[in-house]
C-alpha cells in the first residue's frame, strides 16, 4: 500500500505540475483561476471551440461526480454514526482475542464479516430512509453554500483547503503518527515530521487568514482591473490584444 500511495501521489503531482507550468508559461500572470470559466467567454481574447468546451465540461462533471462521492462518503458514514447512532460496531475497539481470531480467519470469512458489519445498520427497518434523508440534507447544505458564495467560490475552496483539508490530510495524520510511533522512529524521520507539521500549520493559518478576509470581508475591487496579479497595462488589457499593445509599444518603446 505505501508503494501504491507513493507512485500515485508522484504521478498526480507530476501531472498537476505539468498543467500549472504549461498554463503559466502560455498565459503568465493573466492565467485565470478557473480555466473552464475562461474558455467559455472571451476573457483571454479568443473564442474556444464549442465542441472542446462541451467535452471539457463533461470530463469535469465526471471528475466532480467521482471525487464528490469519494470525499463525501466518509462524511456520510461519520454523520450517520454521530447523528443517527449507526455503525457503532465499526468503531468498536477489538479485544486481543477478537483481533487474534480475525487474523486467523480466511479472506472469504473476513470479507463476509466486513459486509455483514457494514450493512447491519441499514437492515433495520426504517434506518435506510433515515440515512437517505441525512445524506440529502448534507448534500443540500453543500449546494446552498456553493450557491451563496458562487461569486467567491475560489476563495471558498482556498479557505476550506487551507483550513480543513490541511488539518485533516497533512497536519493531524503526522501528529497521530508521531504520537503512536514517536519512540520507535529514527531521528531524521522525526525531524522531517516535525518540520512538515510546523510548515503546514504556518501555511494553513496564513492562507486561511487571507482567504477568510476575501471570503467574509471582501473589499470592493476596481472593475477596470481584470488581472490583479499583473503589472502596468497588463492589469486591464488581455495580452492577446496586439492592437492595443502594438500602439503602446510604438508610443513608449516597449
UniProtKB/TrEMBL annotation:
Bilayer topology: Multi-pass membrane protein
Main location group: membrane
Subcellular location: Membrane
First and last residue of the signal peptide: 1-26
Organism phylogeny: Eukaryota, Sar, Stramenopiles, Oomycota, Saprolegniomycetes
Residue span(s) of domain Amino acid transporter transmembrane: 2-210
Segments crossing the lipid bilayer: 54-79, 132-149, 161-179, 191-209
Record's protein name: Amino acid transporter transmembrane domain-containing protein
GO CC annotation: vacuolar membrane
Amino acid at each position: 500500500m505505501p508503494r501504491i500511495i507513493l507512485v500515485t501521489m508522484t504521478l498526480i503531482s507530476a501531472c498537476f505540475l505539468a498543467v500549472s507550468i504549461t498554463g503559466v508559461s502560455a498565459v503568465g500572470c493573466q492565467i485565470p483561476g478557473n480555466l473552464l470559466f475562461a474558455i467559455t467567454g472571451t476573457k483571454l481574447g479568443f473564442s474556444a471551440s464549442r465542441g472542446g468546451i462541451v467535452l471539457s465540461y463533461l470530463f469535469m462533471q465526471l471528475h466532480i461526480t467521482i471525487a464528490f462521492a469519494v470525499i463525501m462518503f466518509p462524511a456520510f458514514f461519520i454523520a450517520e454514526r454521530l447523528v443517527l447512532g449507526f455503525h457503532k460496531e465499526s468503531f468498536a475497539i477489538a479485544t486481543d482475542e477478537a483481533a487474534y481470531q480475525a487474523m486467523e480467519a480466511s479472506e472469504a470469512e473476513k470479507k463476509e464479516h466486513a459486509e455483514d458489519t457494514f450493512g447491519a445498520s441499514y437492515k433495520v427497518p426504517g434506518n435506510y430512509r433515515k440515512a437517505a434523508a441525512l445524506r440529502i440534507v448534507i448534500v443540500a447544505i453543500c449546494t446552498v453554500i456553493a450557491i451563496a458564495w458562487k461569486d467567491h467560490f475560489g476563495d471558498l475552496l482556498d479557505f476550506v483547503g487551507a483550513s480543513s483539508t490541511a488539518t485533516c490530510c497533512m497536519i493531524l495524520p503526522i501528529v497521530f503518527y508521531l504520537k503512536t510511533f514517536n519512540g520507535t522512529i529514527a531521528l531524521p524521520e522525526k525531524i522531517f515530521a516535525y518540520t512538515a507539521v510546523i510548515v503546514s500549520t504556518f501555511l494553513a493559518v496564513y492562507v486561511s487568514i487571507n482567504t477568510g478576509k476575501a471570503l467574509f470581508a471582501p473589499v470592493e475591487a476596481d472593475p477596470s482591473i481584470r488581472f490583479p496579479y499583473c503589472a502596468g497595462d497588463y492589469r486591464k488589457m488581455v495580452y492577446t490584444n496586439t492592437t492595443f499593445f502594438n500602439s503602446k509599444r510604438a508610443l513608449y518603446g516597449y
